[in-house]
């Protein structure tokens, strides 16, 4: 008599297991923030490694950010560069778009998720800077090939939901670069925690004002100066409230006909000056 095989699992269960496996791998990494600012798109990632980049350039106007297994998202990055180079050379450089790359990654990840035993433990963002802010594009692609057209900002990896919530509280359209960086770092920092130093940050921009290649990695003195400017802006934003309160109190004391102060209990202020 044959013994029935006990290892059967329904397709639905297999997909759920693969999705759970991928989510756990992605959640182990630190989050990455991608957001619009006044002159382009900003990428920020806590990353102590100087050799392994989470943020990279794909093409003239297109940037790439990823979390998860480095070897897996690095293979995706290289595939995107090959796709961009071949299409740009064969046709026209303007034919290489963030939307096209997002669709390429979606097809690749979707096929791996459904056909391979192990899904990729990655989540990526493809961003393209336009000639005007309304032309900017930010696409988030998940491990199963789903594509999300994000508006203004995207957060991937780690505690993405919590980081995204903190970022929404600070985000607004048209932020200058120092303020945008400050908002991103505030979102990436746990409440009550310390912000990572510049040496443990990976920061880059797609600057629409640059000629040809828009991607620029911010490091060294340039990043230090930007962080210093962001800190000064944060302090100056706090200062006016305290200064306004002091100014109002001084005006109340000096204004003619102002209400005299209340006399201490047990004393009567006759107003005679005696």
How do the SSEs run, as a string of H and E? HEEEEHHEEEEHHEEH
Rg, alpha carbons:
26 Å
Please report the number of helical segments.
6
The helix/strand class is alpha+beta
Task: Tell me the strand order in the biggest sheet.
Answer: 8-1-2-9-10
- The fraction of residues in strands falls at 15-25%
Mean pLDDT: 87
Shape descriptor: globular
The major β-sheet equals: 5 strands, antiparallel
Helix content: 40-55%
Tally of DSSP β-strands? 10
Distance between the termini: 116 Å
**Which residues sit in consecutive blocks of at least 5 with pLDDT less than 50?**
1-5, 258-274
Description:
This protein is 42% helix and 20% strand. It is of the alpha+beta class and 274 residues long. The strands form two sheets. A five-stranded antiparallel beta sheet has the order 8-1-2-9-10. The protein has a five-stranded antiparallel beta sheet with strand order 3-4-5-6-7. A hairpin with a 7-residue loop joins strand 9 and strand 10 (215-218). Helix 4 packs antiparallel against helix 5 and helix 5 packs across helix 6. Residues 1-5 and 258-274 have low confidence and may be disordered.
Helices and strands, with pairings:
Layout: H1 11-27, E1 32-37, E2 40-46, E3 55-59, E4 62-68, H2 70-90, H3 98-115, E5 122-128, E6 137-141, E7 147-150, E8 153-156, H4 160-170, H5 177-188, E9 201-207, E10 215-218, H6 220-254
Helix pairs in contact: 4-5, 5-6
